[in-house]
Amino acid sequence: xxxxxxxxxxxxxxxxxxxxxxxxxxxxxxxxxxxxxxxxxxxxxxxxxxxxxxxxxxxxxxxxxxxxxxxxxxxxxxxxxxxxxxxxxxxxxxxxxxxxxxxxxxxxxxxxxxxxxxxxxxxxxxxxxxxxxxxxxxxxxxxxxxxxxxxxxxxxxxxxxxxxxxxxxxxxxxxxxxxxxxxxxxxxxxxxxxxxxxxxxxxxxxxxxxxxxxxxxxxxxxxxxxxxxxxxxxxxxxxxxxxxxxxxxxxxxxxxxxxxxxxxxxxxxxxxxxxxxxxxxxx
Length: 283
Known about the structure:
Elements: H1 4-18, E1 23-27, E2 32-37, E3 40-46, E4 53-59, E5 64-69, H2 73-80, E6 85-93, E7 99-103, H3 106-113, E8 119-122, E9 132-137, E10 142-147, H4 153-164, H5 179-215, E11 218-224, E12 228-234, E13 240-246, E14 252-254, H6 268-277
Parallel strand pairs: 3-5, 8-10
Antiparallel strand pairs: 1-4, 2-3, 4-5, 6-7, 6-9, 7-8, 9-10, 11-12, 12-13, 13-14
C-alpha cells in the first residue's frame, strides 16, 4: 500500500530542493517550462511572459520561474543529446521561430515513432525553406538543433526556385528528388497557393469596397467564384443587390438588375451610380 504521508513529504522535499537550483529548458513565448526531478515532472509559468528561447531558469515558487541567463550552445547541445534525433525538411514557416517540417526518411520515422507526418519544429535559429535540419524529440515537442550540413544544398536551391516560379508539385523534374522532398515541396506549394488566394481575396475585397464607397454603396458580402466575384452590396437607401463582377477590372458580368442586356458596358462603380440615381418609380 502506498504511504501517502511519505509521498507528500517526498513531493514537498523535491519542491524545496528545486527552489535552490537552476535548470535548463526550452521555452515558447507565453508557454510553460518543464523539468523532471526523481521521475516527477514539474511545470512552471515563466515570470517574463515574452521570453522565448533556451534558458536557465530558477523556481520562484511551486508555479513560477525566473530567467537566470541564456545557456551556452554546448549546454543546449548536451541537453538535446538526451533525446532521439530526427532529420527533416523545412516546409512552411509558422511564425518567427517555428516551422512545419517533413521527415527526410518516412520509414525510419514510422519505425521509431509509429507514424510519419509533418511536425512543427521549434526555436529554429537558422535555415530557410527546404533546408534539411536536425531536431531533438522530447516526447512532446521537436526542438531545433542545427542545419544538417550533410545534405546537398543544390536540391534545396532547386526547390526554392521552383516554388518561386509556382511550379506545381507534379511538374518537378530534377533528378534524384526523394518522395519525402516532393512531399515537403507539396506542403510548401499548397501553403503558398493558399496565401496567394488569401492575398487575392483581401486585395479584391479592398478594391470592391473602394468602388462601392465612391458611388455611395457599401459591401455586404463577397464570395469568390474562382473566375469572378459575387458581390452582395447595398445602396445608400438600404436596397440590397447581388452582382457578378470581373476580378481583374471590376467590370460587370451580371448586374442582378435589368440593364437591357448592357451589363458588360458597366463597371461596379458605374453600376452602383445607375442604381443610386434612378428615379423612385423605378425602384
